[in-house]
Amino acid sequence: MLDDGVMNKTAFLTGANVGQSNLLTKQLAARGWHVFAGVLPGAPTDLVNGPNITVVEQDVTSTESVNASAEVVRKALGGRGLDLLMNIAGVANVAVGVVEAADLKAMERLFQINLFGQVRVVQAFLPMLRQNAPGSRIANYSSGAILSNPVSAGAYNMTKHAIHGLTMTLRHELAPFGIQVTSIIPGGVLTAMSANSHANSKVTWNQQPEAIRKIYEPVLGKTVLQVLPDFLEAKGSSPEQAVEQTLKILDLKKWKPMHYVGNDVKPMGIMKRLLSDAQLETIMRKTFQIPEYKAGR
């Protein structure tokens, strides 16, 4: 149980064993928050229990695990509420490929992690957030993919559009309680995985059926295997930059429906406000060198 004499702000972050959630856990703890860090059971992590960090095992694909993690937090709070929930856990390299060849079982798993995982966590932790309302908050991690809609990432893109839909509904449902909700829209972040983006793209592209590759490679191969990885490496943000921008969002008194994080996604956010959907789509196709239809191709 937390020290009764300490009135730290409290937060629960999912997916904190590594990555952005791990860095945010450390930064919030350094700012004086008490952070409950959700980590996948058995996954390696450098996080340990300390004065401002409590590590909580949580598998977002399991309702039983999520409910158990919420009970751990509830007991530790000792009757207090929760100030912040950050739904960060998610994966990208599952069900990768053009929609025509998508592995539906893999796609279902992706939705279980990225989307239904967030829904499970919201359902389990909302009673604690309501205790600290008005003023408590939920940040759901979507993606800049909902602006660029990259080819060969349809399944991932669908989950991230759905997450923003979740956010927009929660903004209406929780406004009467004084609970703010936003979608964090990160762009590309230069992590250890994305450092090998060209090699990773080649591997996932080649996992598609050969017959499908023969159809799509002449028109989309360059986009997937060269243009998109080049764009990530040239325009992506460092993990530290992404965390710094996220912390600034947390400092805002009033949240918008979505907040952009990253050097690449912020210009797209501006274009989304100023341009029609058709105009933005045209720019995305030119940027990522998606060819127009040509008779006889």
Task: Please tell me about this protein's structure.
By secondary structure, this protein is an alpha/beta fold. The chain has a single domain, classed as Rossmann fold, CATH 3.40.50.720. The protein is 50% helix and 12% strand. It has eleven helices and seven strands. The chain has helices spanning 19-30, 63-77, 104-114, 116-131, 145-148, 154-174, 197-206, 210-235, 239-251, 265-274, 277-287, and strands at residues 10-13, 34-39, 53-57, 84-87, 137-141, 180-186, 258-261. Strands 3-2-1-4-5-6-7 form a seven-stranded parallel sheet, with helices on both faces. Strand 1, helix 1 (19-30) and strand 2 (34-39) form a beta-alpha-beta unit. The protein is globular. The termini are far apart. The model has no long low-confidence stretch (mean pLDDT 93).
How is this fold's topology laid out?
Layout: E1 10-13, H1 19-30, E2 34-39, E3 53-57, H2 63-77, E4 84-87, H3 104-114, H4 116-131, E5 137-141, H5 145-148, H6 154-174, E6 180-186, H7 197-206, H8 210-235, H9 239-251, E7 258-261, H10 265-274, H11 277-287
Parallel strand pairs: 1-2, 1-4, 2-3, 4-5, 5-6, 6-7
Helix pairs in contact: 1-9, 2-4, 3-6, 7-8
